[in-house]
Amino acid sequence: MTEDLTKVDFFRDSRLTEDPYTFYAALRDKCPVSREEHYGVTMVTGWQEAVDVYNDPDTFSSCISVTGPFPGFPVPLEGDDVTQTIIEHRDEIPFSDQLPTLDPPTHTNHRALLMRLITPKRLKENEDAMWTLADDVLDDYLASDSGEFIEGFAAPFTLRVIADLLGVPEQDRAELIERLARGTHGSGLGNADKAMNMTPLEYLYEVFATYVEDRRAEPRDDVLTGLANATFPDGTVPDVGDVVRVATNVFSAGQETTVRLLSTALKVLGEQPDVQAKVRADRSLLPNFVEECLRIESPVKGDFRLSRVPTTIGDQSVGAGTTVMVVNGAANRDPRRFENPDSFDAERRNARQHLAFGRGIHSCPGAPLARAETRVGLERLLDRTTDIRISESKHGPAGNRHYKYIPTYILRGLTELYLEFDLA
């Protein structure tokens, strides 16, 4: 690109799919809080400025968290306080029932419900099962000396882990995972007579609604019963739909981001033999290695907020009703916070200060699960191989690699990663 990078259309220019980081740097160098000219979105690319926005839910609503400027807010936002307008029309925004888009007090209640599911005890039990689940998937993936990593290991492994966390009955897991993996979804497990045209989210809604209703009618000693009978902080019983939305949010959002994290980790190991040798020799480096993977390639490019009242971000004034994008991938490479930010350093001391999981009340509740999944998956891959390499026949030679990335302005991650390996 030879033109002024700050004028590139971040949301539609396909050139930024492969490498958004030169754009981020240009925008941040111009100003860490700047209004892009195509849709009027205020882009927050500085680390401290991003933290300030995330930590101020009173000023910034999350109602457009996953939609941003498309389609935008359903009615004009006028005046110096648009709080009441947001309350009256937020249900007209796509995905308005999802946890990331909720504001307090609704968000407070729903997140509390989720944390009844993702307890330290349940996460420990889930992690114990991960080792077996990882080996089961690796038995197939490592059957030859090469393979595509995302579909061969990352996707099936993370799907099985989340199914285990949510307590999906053993007899249902194979069909549920197979349908989600291939992207064609029926209208309930074991019911082949219904139409096969549901979206993955609709499919999960129906499956988990059946589970919750069944467990409320006939409680059992399982995770789903605990979820079905969980209450809001004030002791009231949630609607079935509220419980279902929490469960499906964990299933869908948690799986997607962890797949991207795992693929980044394997890309780094394959591209940098010195890093691979270092973590093979000292497994205690793995937790920080995972944090640095999250910093260098945040699975979520950014998150949107809507300002309720006039405010400032950094030293920039922002009017009421402004769409703000907190660009995690840019903040994670802010040189004011991270030394040599474009270089991967498995031993970076402040790697965990990244914003890949957000901050504040909307920080990712599944972050401990994602970290555990990735660490276990890496441990078993390293245990069962002696060397992992990028496939030159698929991605080209070192120094001239070719990778494909998800073509969205929300997610960042590889669509495929071909590896070669020597077995232990």
Strand order of the largest sheet: 1-2-8-5-3
Q: Give helix and strand order, one letter per element, not per position.
A: HHEEHEHHHEHHHHHHHEEEEHHEHE
Tell me the overall shape.
Answer: globular
Instruction: Identify the CATH homologous superfamily.
Output: Cytochrome P450
Estimate what percentage of residues fall within beta strands. Answer: 5-15%
Largest beta-sheet details: 5 strands, mixed
- What's the structural domain tally? 1
Spatial extent as radius of gyration: 22 Å
Q: List segments where confidence is low: pLDDT < 50 over at least 5 consecutive residues.
A: 184-196
Mean pLDDT, as a whole number? 91
**What is the tally of helical segments?**
16
Tell me the structural class.
alpha+beta
* E-strand count: 10
CATH architecture: Orthogonal Bundle
Terminal-residue CA separation = 45 Å
Question: Class, according to the CATH hierarchy?
Answer: Mainly Alpha
What is the topological layout?
Layout: H1 15-18, H2 21-30, E1 33-35, E2 42-44, H3 47-54, E3 60-61, H4 83-89, H5 106-117, H6 120-141, E4 146-148, H7 149-166, H8 170-182, H9 200-217, H10 223-228, H11 240-271, H12 273-281, H13 286-296, E5 303-307, E6 311-313, E7 316-318, E8 323-326, H14 328-331, H15 367-384, E9 385-390, H16 392-395, E10 418-423
Parallel strand pairs: 2-8
Antiparallel strand pairs: 1-2, 3-5, 4-10, 5-8, 6-7, 9-10
Key descriptive features of the protein:
Cytochrome p450; alpha+beta; about 10% strand; about 425 residues; 3-stranded antiparallel β-sheet
